[in-house]
Specification:
With about 300 residues, this protein is α/β, with parallel strands linked by helices. The protein folds into 2 domains: about 160 residues, NAD(P)-binding Rossmann-like Domain (Rossmann fold); about 120 residues, N-(1-d-carboxylethyl)-l-norvaline Dehydrogenase, domain 2 (Orthogonal Bundle), CATH 1.10.1040.10. Helix content is about 55%, strand content about 15%. The protein has a 6-stranded parallel sheet with strand order 3-2-1-4-5-6, sandwiched between helices. It has a 3-stranded mixed sheet with strand order 7-8-9.
Length: about 300
């Protein structure tokens, strides 16, 4: 791969747009493919990106193909469908999966890529769309170290922290565990705030006390902005996506096998919220979902 590889990017959502933008503005050639939303495509082509008619054509003209979609079904579709990445993959091309995916699926997709002569690495993301736009994400990597060393200059375009987890699939395992830790904390914060609401405890006092001791956390501070100010944008992560990630985590635990009592409880907490109609809303709205479940007026 040359010093300035040709980059293809599939999946220009909240995270993908920022990543692709930073790859482009750091002087790399970029090819993108349309899906449902034209806005990020139009922004990137205005900045100099090329638009391919299909994922296969994108892959044919790329040394590296990034995939940044919702989960394993979407990754498999991008790779395997007619006109998909596998159809156009050239020997030696690196496929980097930034999605949060099931490790078993990751290994299957890696085998398909390798059968076509390509190289597969899992590169799931940590942090939020804000850091994606700023080029300050954290990236977990799984795969061959030589391939990841080759890919490192591209990852440096959008990440300030890069951690190698092990072979292919290890990064997706680590990401699921990290998401479980964050989402379990978020669920606990939401439950604590709703307990205060129902018990008549002053929310400002609760937040002040929690932040002064061992209960302080990133999620507490993000959720406090919604509870106290009505701003739910500090955690731009859909509740339905959280439920999906936790389902992947509990499935991974089942396969291992691991006794994941808390994982199952946290998964069902988000699942109930999604079923109740909160799935497309950001994480802090778990407060509303649990308030409604506990007989409180929506929003407090």
């Amino acid at each position: 791969m040359s010093n300035k590889p040709r980059i293809g990017f599939v999946g220009l959502g909240l995270m993908g747009h920022g990543i692709a933008k930073n790859i482009l503005i750091k002087g790399n050639s970029l090819t993108v493919v349309a899906h449902r939303n034209r806005k990020p495509i139009d922004d990137l082509t205005a900045r100099g990106a090329r638009e391919a008619p299909s994922a296969a054509e994108l892959a044919r003209g790329s040394d590296v193909v990034f995939i940044c979609v919702t989960g394993s079904p979407e990754v498999e579709d991008v790779l395997r469908h007619r006109g998909g990445v596998l159809e156009g993959l050239s020997p030696g091309t690196i496929v980097a999966d930034c999605s949060t995916a099931e490790p078993e699926s990751t290994l299957r997709m890696a085998a398909l890529v390798e059968a076509r002569g390509g190289r597969f690495v899992d590169t799931p993301l940590v942090r939020t769309p804000k850091e994606a736009e700023e080029g300050r994400l954290a990236v977990i990597t799984g795969g061959d170290e030589a391939t990841l060393t080759e890919l490192r200059p591209v990852l440096d375009c959008f990440a300030e922290v890069i951690v190698h987890a092990g072979p292919v699939g290890a990064a997706h395992k680590l990401k699921l565990i990290a998401n479980f830790l964050a989402l379990a904390n978020a669920a606990a914060v939401a439950e604590g705030l709703v307990s205060a609401m129902k018990g008549g405890v002053d929310l400002k006092a609760l937040v002040e006390v929690a932040q002064s001791g061992g209960a302080d956390s990133v999620m507490l501070r993000r959720f406090a902005r919604y509870a106290l100010e009505g701003d739910d944008t500090a955690a731009k992560f859909a509740i339905a996506t959280a439920a999906k990630d936790l389902r992947y985590y509990t499935h991974m635990a089942e396969v291992a096998p691991i006794a994941a009592f808390l994982g199952e409880a946290v998964h069902q907490t988000y699942q109930v919220a999604a079923i109740a109609g909160y799935g497309e809303l950001y994480l802090p709205r778990m407060i509303d979902a649990l308030a409604q479940l506990n007989g409180l007026r929506k929003g407090g």
